[in-house]
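Field: sequence (string)
Field: structure_tokens (string)

Example rows 1 and 2, in order.
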Amino acid sequence: MKKTKSQLKSEGFLCTDGSAGSEQYVKKLSPTRFLVYERDADVMSDIELKRYTDVELTEYISGYYKNLQEVIDTYGDDANMVIAECISETDLV
């Protein structure tokens, strides 16, 4: 059953994309582990970045960024969250 926006907020999720047809929420569990919820698809992904090599991470972000350093330079402390979102979005395609 699809979670409501208020449920997600009360569970500590942050809305990272509120676009109609692509609502996405992320909850940080640790510096390298994130829950990514694609609300419209009703899909929850548990992503642990330590499970991926730098080559794999670079492949996941390649549709959005040139390289990992660009993500780090652009998002700083939130870079891992953005990488987790890219993994989630790529796995849904």
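Row 2 begins here:
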Amino acid sequence: MPNINSPFRFGSIVSGDYFYNREDTLGKQTPYRRKVLEALFYALTEIYLAETARTFGLSSANTQSAFKYLLNDSVVEKIDNTYVFSDPFLKLFIKKYIVGNLDKSIGN
């Protein structure tokens, strides 16, 4: 049996009898859906505001289509007309590997 010191090692967590890999979840998303997930990270309740759309380069129709896919794929859930990450650790993964890298590139 492998020695697992941290269940979050390499972006994976033990879920029941399965390993859930967040890199796979993000890797199979289109660039547009990744932008929607990034926007959701920053603007949880204002995802459809014009300012959010401008900031992240989103369009309403494409964002609705992206959310339809993300909902069907169980990446996000809709609760009280608000989209949330189905997996709270995916949000942390996005913060560390996507948003963190963007913040570093902006600072240079």
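free_text_note (row 2): The first strand starts at residue 12 and ends at 15.
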